[in-house]
Write a structure and sequence with these properties.
Elements lengths: L1 E7 L6 E5 L2 H17 L4 E5 L7 E5 L3 E8 L14 H5 L1
Length: about 90
């Protein structure tokens, strides 16, 4: 399972969605990067492979950071989301 964390301007916590396959996670990453580069305020609707009822829509011009993380079977629920996970591990 791959987790894609999306940080939006002026929102301190990331939005997270999961993809089962690496290729799907990479495709979503590229789609979000394209939205960031274009600066368009078009809506991007995201779904989650882990929780199929989870949906979120966001404006592409509000995205300021994206991270992809591979979730291994040993990772517990105490995982810190987003970019600060690496700092917390040290």
């Amino acid at each position: 399972m791959f987790t894609i964390d999306i940080v939006l301007q002026e929102i301190p916590l990331p939005i997270s969605v999961q993809r089962k396959e690496e290729a799907a996670a990479e495709n979503l990453y590229q789609e979000l990067m394209t939205a960031m580069r274009s600066g368009s305020a078009d809506l991007i609707e995201l779904t989650c492979d882990k929780d199929e009822d989870k949906k979120v829509a966001l404006k592409g011009n509000l995205i300021c950071a994206i991270s992809i993380n591979k979730k291994s079977g040993g990772m517990a629920e105490g995982r810190i989301p987003g970019f600060f996970a690496t700092i917390a591990d040290k």
